[in-house]
Amino acid sequence: MSVQSAAADVDVDLRQLFASLGRNWLRIVLITLLVTGMAFAFAWLATPYYKATAKLEIGSRESEFTRPPGTNDDDKPILDEQGVATQVQIISSPDILKQVATKLNLDKLPEFDETLKMSALGRMLVLVGLKSDPFDIPPDERVLNAMHDKLNVYAVEKTRAIAIEFASKDPRLAAEIANGIADAYIASKSDAKLESNAAATDFLAPEIADLQNRVRDAEAKVAAFRAQSDLLMGGNNSVLPTQQLSELSSELSRVRAGRAAAEASAESVRRALQNGASLDSVPEVLSSDLIQRLRERQVELRASIADLSTTLLDNHPRIRALKSQLADLDGQIRNEAQKIIRGLSAQAQTAKAREDQLVADVNTLKAASARAGEQQVQLDALQRDANVQRQQLESYMASYNAVASRKDRKYLPVAASLIAKAQVPSQPYFPKIGPITGAAAAASLLLMAIGTLLGELFSGRAMRPAPGAPFENIEQVAMPVARTEPVVAEDDDDDSPFGPYEAVVASERLPERLPRIPESQAIEPGSVEAKQSMPEPKPEPLPSRLGEIDVDKAAEKLIASGAARAIFVSPEGDEAAASAVLVTREVSDAGLRVLLLDLTASGAASRPMLDSSLFPGITNLLASEAQFSDVIHPDLYSDAHVVPVGTADPVRAMRAADRLPIIMQSLTTAYDLVVVECGPADAQGIGRLVGDGTEVFLSMLEADDQVTQAAVKLIENGYPNLTLVTPVGHEPPGTPVPGRRSAA
Fold first, then answer.
1. Are 632 and 643 in contact (CB under 8 A)?
2. What percentage of the chain has pLDDT greater than the value 70?
3. Phi and psi dihedrals of 305, rounded to 5?
4. How far is CA 140 from the centre of its chain?
5. Cβ neighbours of residue 492 under 8 Å, at least 6 residues apart?
6. How buried is 715 (Cβ within 10 angstroms: 0-12 exposed, 13-18 middle, 19+ buried)?
């Protein structure tokens, strides 16, 4: 039997387990009362301790009126959780505790120095080595250790406040020490600022003197270089050559523009004269006063000629005289235009000469400006050096003045303040008689109850057999006596259990050997007298001539033949399904991988192996509601596996019955042997399950006509090697024996 099977044979009887508490109530109550009394005595006799608490606020305390110019509180970093935790460590540092111990003379109190008043128990523990000798520790360290044990410094959650708790036998001393630690911390921060200011003034004074000399030398170098290089500053903060070059460049551009305009005007007038075009469209001609007067005279003459032409002919002397005057005016206008052209040409030549002169001057100033630029770079470098040193000097002087004024006036703001002084406690925080006594009573009661339950559990008295483990013995059922025939007697072979059925099929005389009871025959009241007249059978069981074998031989047959499938048919119904279960377990105990497939309608084969019928099984697999891994379960009493009937709709599952050969092939591939319990099936029903290496078994409890008819039908329908197997009398060691109405 496997370990799993052995472990599942017993279960815990909770009623028996918890009944042990009632049987041992007196012992539990007495021990609980004893422990409670001891706890009450300890709390009553223990030395009371008082705890006082002082609170500090960590933050800037600088006034806006005393703050150095150019700074504010926003420039200072705000302490985060790590910063507050650092201050907690500083408060509990040995330096501050030493100051408080010295101020309050704690080394003279037995509470802080055990050597002043050492108890006899303490001396005994030192002698046996269970406690270190306090005389080996320096006095200051003994006091500090005692203060550390009674001190608790912590940051208040979600604030920048720090609480200082101190416990002592003397309530007044507890408050004094807590306030003394807070005052010592604030004083240490003030001393640290004083030392920082003193160190700052000592550093800044010589630095300022040195910077003053360096600034003076730098500015002197700037002035000397400017005088040596003749770098005269002009407008727009630029040197004189650069400024002159800019002005000449502007003048050159203006002259070039004037020359270009004069040349363009002269060219336009010249082109108009050459082409004989009207000069009225030329701006220079229109701007001449003489030409405008001549144009006015032309207009008057044309008007006179037009007036006279109305009364006189063109050859009239007067009209001819006017036309002659008009022609003279045109010649004068052209002469004036020629003069304008010559004037514009002269203007262009003058502008060209001025342009040449300006270009020469610009070239000269370019060289001078380049030299001035190089010198300006050197001058700027000297000027920057002087400015940097001056700015540093001014910064140092401002810091020195601020630090010196604070030092002289003794104004040293500390970034911490006492927001709550420790008050003298009136009630001790230890011991609390009520909570200690109640906790001791509850803990002792709980431990005693647990100990009692564990003792009952380990003693085995609270154990009971697991459900389904005990089985009743199978009733020994007498097999019916078959009529003997000479043929059967002659052909009977003791070594073959299949001889009777083979002889029956060969001689076709089975009806003469085995009585058949028609299935349609009904019991009528009139047949009772006939039955009473028949001789009663003997009560003792007679040996069967049907050749059945037991479970052990069936398992040996399967193992020896190397069968891959074993089909069990149980014509007697659920009662005979025990054969398949027992054979499966026997083969599994032999070391083979075996699986039982339950195809009964009621799950008679799988239910005793799983103690439940609610597991998914073959119907779920056929209905495509589960996979192989979901429907294969381990047997509770062996190493075999089982596929139960399942929980799916049987009608829906049977629609996919054609998948059974595929499922059987898959299971045969995975296991050494697949046992199928078919219930009262016929030859047609097991046809889908038969394959290579298949053995067919007929389970039986009684050799009645029902079994006989089932065997004959199976033999006649192609299963001549049918084997009869019975579970009667099978009781393997350590395995529950199947009952008359149970499969296992």
1. yes
2. 75
3. -60, -40
4. 51
5. 499, 500, 503, 545
6. buried
User: What is the 3-state composition of the chain as percent helix, strand, coil, each rounded to the nearest 5?
Assistant: 60, 10, 35
State the residue for tokens 């505790």. Answer: 97
Specify the DSSP element, H or E, that contains 329.
helix 317-409
Q: For the chain, count helices (H), then strands (E).
A: 25, 13
| Phi, psi dihedrals of residue 115, rounded to the nearest 5° | -70, -20
User: Which residue type occupies 44?
Assistant: W
Q: Is 480 left (phi over 0), alpha (psi -120 to 50) or beta?
A: beta
* Chain Cα centroid distance, residue 708: 70
Query: Which H helix or E strand runs over 695?
Result: strand 694-699
What's the CA gap between 171 and 423, in Å, rounded? Answer: 9
Give the pairing type, strands 594-598 and 641-643.
parallel
Contacting residues for 281 by C-beta, under 8 A, at least 6 apart: 272
**Residue 525 is encoded by which pair of tokens?**
């009241």
How far apart CA 250 and CA 243 sit, in angstroms, is 11
d(CA 426, CA 490): 115
Residue 418 phi/psi, 5° resolution? -85, 110
Instruction: Look at residue 250 and tell me whether its pLDDT is greater than 90.
Output: no
User: 269-283 pLDDT, tens per residue?
Assistant: 777 666 665 555 566
Instruction: Give pLDDT, residue 731.
Output: 56
Total count of residues recorded for the chain: 744
pLDDT confidence of 259, banded at 50, 70, 90?
confident
Amino acid 293: pLDDT:
77
Is there a contact between 586 and 552 (Cβ–Cβ < 8 Å)? Answer: yes
Residue range 692-743, pLDDT digits in tens: 889 999 888 877 788 888 888 888 888 888 888 888 766 544 444 333 333 3
**Three-class SS of residue 304?**
helix
In the three-class reduction of DSSP (H, G, I as helix; E, B as strand; rest coil), residue 167 is classed as: strand
Distance CA 530, CA 166 (A): 110
Phi, psi angles (nearest 5°) of residue 657: -65, -20
Measured between alpha carbons, how far is 86 from 114 in angstroms, rounded to an integer? 31
Taking only the tens place, the pLDDT of each residue in 380-427 is 788 888 888 888 888 888 888 777 766 666 666 777 888 889 999 988
* Cα 685 from Cα 667, distance rounded (Å): 19
Q: How far is it, in rounded angstroms, from Cα 513 to Cα 502?
A: 13
**DSSP string for 266-293:** HHHHHHHHHHT--GGG-HHHHT-HHHHH
CB atoms under 10 Å from CB of 27, counted, come to 11
pLDDT band at 170 (very low <50, low <70, confident <90, very high): very high
Whole-angstrom distance, CA of residue 703 vs CA of residue 479 = 5
Task: State if pTM tops 0.90.
Answer: no
Provide the 3-class DSSP secondary structure of residue 313. coil
Which range scores top for mean pLDDT: 29-38, 71-80, 653-662? 29-38
Angle, vertex CA 160, rays to CA 155 and CA 166, nearest 5: 35
Contacts of 156 by beta carbon, 8 Å cutoff, 6+ apart: 55, 162, 163
